[in-house]
Description:
This protein is mostly helical and 247 residues long. The protein is built from eleven helices and two strands.
Amino acid sequence: MAHKFRTKIRMAALIGLLFVSACARPEVSRGTYDPFEVQNRGIHEDNRKLDQYVLRPVSQGYGKILPPELRLGVSNMASNLSVPGVVVNDLLQFNLRNAGHNTVRFLLNSTIGLGGLLDPAAAKFPLRRNDFGQTLYVWGAGEGAYLELPLLGPSTTRAAAGIVVDLALDPLRLFAPTDVATASTIASAADVANSRYTYSDTVDSILYDSEDSYAQSRLLYLENRRFLLGDTTSGEDVYDIYEDLYE
């Protein structure tokens, strides 16, 4: 177990360093840095087909079969099980206030919230989101190139590095029993289906009704991500539906 943990730490650190190097170019505060647009567009089309033939119909079935209360409970559980990873990033950023806030939230929802099915902490301890992509931003890494990732959708080299490291350093995957980690994976997948169902009209308009769904998805993702990081110089604040689907 200890050897496995040390191996994951080394891999995460190495991957993080490689991506930090790749991101280490001047921050693009306006416009888009998309040197891989040809490849990205190909992946975008594959993701669109995956949504059309798999995610969209599955989400419709999920949303229509299960009552809203149950879907909300599963999404609450997925959110709660993600909190230990959020706290890790709070600590990596030396943000002890947020680390304490999110830890209290996790403890309340894991106990009186019945393992996260309920969200009694929401009123006083709403989740303060964090991830390793944000940690890299705090550490000074540039945004890097825009990427469209298979299955995961819009991203950047910095955010993609964050996804990899978050997976490698997720406390639940490292320390929790296998059944807890499995429950987390299942709940996260169900949450994606629920988000796709809840925001179906908006996602459909972006993917299937816009003149250029790739450019539209890219714009919404970058504007929202920069806004979340506090980079308000990037342009108009835009709510991004992909936050719920891909982050």
